[in-house]
Amino acid sequence: NSNVFVLQRFKKLPFEMDIVFLSNTGSRFASSSTKIQKEVSALSGVGLDEILLRKSESFEKRFEEVFPLKQRGFTPDYQKFAMTTFSNLIGGIGYFYGNNRIYAERPEPEPQYMLSSQPKGLYTATPSRTFFPRGFLWDEGFHQLLISNWDKEISKDMLAHWLKLINENGWLPREQILGGEAESRVPPEFIIQYPDNANPPTLYLPIESILDRGDLSDNDKRFMRGVFSNLAANYLWYLKTQKGPVPNSFRWRGAKGNHTLPSGFDDYPRTSNGERSDLEEHVDLLCWMITSSNILDKIARAIDVYDVPQFKLIEEELIAALKERYWNPKANAYCDYDGLAKAHVDHVGYVSLFPFLFGLIPIDSVRLSHVLDMMENPDILKTNFGLRSLSVSDPLFGRDENYWRGPIWVNINYLVLRALYRYYMTVPGPYTERAQNLYNSLRRNLISNIHTVYKSQNDLFENYSPLTGRGQGQHPFTGWTSLIVLIMAEIY
Fold first, then answer.
1. Which of 248, 231, 253, 353 is nearest to 299 (CA)?
2. From CA 379, how far away is CA 394, in angstroms rounded?
3. Is the pTM of this model over 0.85?
4. CA of 243: how far to CAs of 289, 334, 476, in Å?
5. What angle do CA 264, 329, 321 make, to 5 degrees?
6. Which residues contact 31 (CB under 8 A, 6 or more apart)?
7. How many other C-beta atoms lie within 10 A of the C-beta of residue 393?
């Protein structure tokens, strides 16, 4: 009745060995060694080779149907790289079960947290199964852009799991640290989740992707109806808890020192002089609220829901605020506003791109020309490897932790290419040709560098050096870095 069996073998290199596990053989084969041997043979040696070959051929055929890289002229080496990348994203999917630890003020020496009322289950992809074995809201929307193209039903199941975690107040914890495996890889100071902290609501992106494909099936509409109320509750939570110091402004709660972890851009500079206050206004969060309003309106129309808040009216008000308040004429860029200093923040980088990322800049606006300048200019964001996260001319470029102060991140570069492809390079306007040229050069640089690094450093990385292009940060990182597959396939 033991449940552990230990077998030790000594082999001389090189060797191959197949290990076959058959369960419940006693009742299924009734001591027939011939039947057991037959099943073992089917699952090992030549039999296993044949199964693996059939599965491999089937996968390669399906991969080309979904991500037509051969059709786009990529060599077998690039195709294999893309298949390996995507396979590792899928291999990082897991199911986690446990309680979130939520901050609550208590008298010492009581722990300063409480457990969520009931254990929760989450079916999710992970940024890196070895180093980040848990769900991240900031990352998961990007993961699902890939997964929904491969299998829409699996993606909807995973999205539903995430959206069921929205609590009665509309809050969705930004990290889902559920169970022992997840907790074992998190420093203790980061385990507790704070109920006023948000995160970029990236789950809207794959939902919009499903909507934009058109011809929603009855199953798609059931899914949209099933998640709509939770999405709306979460949206209202953002409007209430993340509002800024003036009407139609927003501020990420949870900033500490130089870090604004809830924004996803950790150490990206947010103020003029480093002094934090409640008077900050964050342009990236404003843009997330605009696009959330837009997508909720799309969902409501798709499922014929009319007795809901006027998402379109809110979107229009927020777009007007963006236009009037967040253009920094000194930097010729969209920037945060520092109410303490009563001035725009002069740091130019990924945050400055957000109105562009969501197509919020009119195609004939001179502001679009300035934003294109930022991405074309090697003295600002352009490198031969992708767009850096902070201008190389910024005094804080490459300083201190240097996480979002220069390194190249694939998720934002993907959103740039997506914006060029969807909003700016195919619509006639004064900057159409520039948008097309930028798209071609940026896409080419990203694909070339990530593939080169993969061949030389044998992995995909969290981010890439803006100086050398080399991979850095955690690895293997086949979460949003896997977006390179969509970039190669031009699926946006």
1. 231
2. 10
3. yes
4. 10, 19, 37
5. 60
6. none
7. 11
Question: Can you give 2-66 as a three-state secondary structure string?
Answer: CCCCCCCCCCCCCCCCCCCCCCCHHHHHCCCHHHHHHHHHHCCHHHHHHHHHHHHHHHHHHHHHH
Joined together, the tokens standing for residue 78 give: 């690039």
* H-helix or E-strand spanning residue 340: none
Q: Which residues of 409-420 are buried (b: 16+ CB within 10 A; e: fewer)?
A: bbbbbbbbbbbb
Report the C-alpha gap between 57 and 162 in whole angstroms.
Answer: 33
Please identify which of the residues 266, 317, 376, 490 carries the catalytic annotation. Answer: 266
- Amino acid identity, position 248: N
Whether 410 contacts 450, CB under 8 Å: yes
Q: What is the rounded CA–CA span in Å between residue 176 and residue 94?
A: 12
Bridge partners of residue 472, in order along the sequence: 463
Q: In 112-258, which residue ranges form alpha helices assigned H by DSSP?
A: 137-150, 152-163, 180-184, 204-212, 218-241
**Catalytic residue from among 140, 284, 336, 462:** 462
Amino acid letter for position 111: P
Cα 400 from Cα 472, distance rounded (Å): 16
Rg of the chain's alpha carbons, rounded to an integer?
25
Per-position pLDDT tens, the chain of length 492? 777 888 899 999 999 888 888 887 766 666 577 888 888 888 898 888 998 999 999 999 999 999 999 999 999 999 999 999 999 999 999 999 999 999 887 777 777 677 776 899 999 999 999 999 999 999 999 999 999 999 999 999 999 999 999 999 999 999 999 998 889 999 888 899 999 999 999 999 999 999 999 889 999 999 999 999 999 999 999 999 999 999 999 999 999 999 999 999 999 999 988 899 999 999 999 999 999 999 999 999 999 987 666 999 999 999 999 999 999 999 999 999 999 999 999 999 999 999 999 999 999 999 999 999 999 999 999 999 999 999 999 999 999 999 999 999 999 999 999 999 999 999 999 999 999 999 999 999 999 999 999 999 999 999 999 999 999 999 999 999 999 999 999 999
Catalytic residue flag (residue 307): no
Read off the amino acid at residue 120: K
Pair of tokens at residue 60: 């390669």
Beta strands in 172-321 (DSSP E): 175-176, 280-281
**Is 324 considered catalytic here?**
no
